[in-house]
Amino acid sequence: MPARWCAKFGQAYANGLRWRRPRPGAKWHLDEAFIKINGELKYLWRAIDADGNMLDILLRNQRDKAAARRFFRRLLKTTRSVPRVVVTDKLRSYGAAHREVMPSVEHRSHKGLNNRAENSHQPTRQRERAMKGFRSVGGAQQFLAVFSGISPHFRPRRHLMTVAHYRTEMTTRFAIWDQITGGAGLPAAA
């Protein structure tokens, strides 16, 4: 059932939330994680901005210069903006692709600077465990694109808020969700 829901409605809802988000920040964090799909190792490339908003994800077979270049181009196309700084880990493919695609952007490559991107993989790992793994590359790409767009909407940075602010923030977020899904006019279930 969740896979069918994701295929039919998920991307439209994720796009509705994406259009309401503010423009991405000037500092982007990029990282890749390993995911096993049917016993084969795949690489999940992910980009987030300085505020922790997911910019884009891409699931690839390789972790080389061509995959990094494709991810950079896709990222620039989907965000329609150019960052001031790109922060990555020490993977050399980032530097090679960066020099080709975004030579005017500053590139910082350091293990400790990229913790924000490393931590952004946690919800994906939790969901992967709950689903007992992904079955196909296309299904994983489709699900993660939707999940990464919707999940942060319901996970505000709680540790930075007071209880009253958290309640008003969640009320606002549920009102936005009702507008996007068309559930604003429906009666509440008992």
Protein architecture, described:
The protein has 190 residues and is an alpha/beta fold. The chain has a single domain, classed as Nucleotidyltransferase, domain 5. Helix content is 48%, strand content 19%. It has helices at residues 2-20, 65-79, 92-101, 115-119, 122-130, 137-150, 163-181, and strands at residues 27-37, 40-49, 54-60, 85-88, 106-109. β2 (40-49) and β3 form a beta hairpin.
Shape: globular
Spatial arrangement of strands, main beta sheet: 3-2-1-4-5
Order of helices and strands: HEEEHEHEHHHH
What is the CATH architecture descriptor? 2-Layer Sandwich
Radius of gyration: 18 Å
Number of H- or I-type helical stretches: 7
Q: How many domains in all? A: 1
CATH class: Alpha Beta
- Poorly predicted sequence stretches spanning 5 or more consecutive residues: none
Which structural category do the helix and sheet elements fall into? alpha/beta
Instruction: Write the CATH fold name.
Output: Nucleotidyltransferase, domain 5
Mean pLDDT: 78
Which SSEs are present, and which pair or pack?
Layout (H helix, E strand, L loop, with lengths): L1 H19 L6 E11 L2 E10 L4 E7 L4 H15 L5 E4 L3 H10 L4 E4 L5 H5 L2 H9 L6 H14 L12 H19 L9
Q: Keyphrases for this structure?
A:
globular; 5 strands; Nucleotidyltransferase, domain 5; alpha/beta; 19% strand; five-stranded mixed sheet; 190 residues
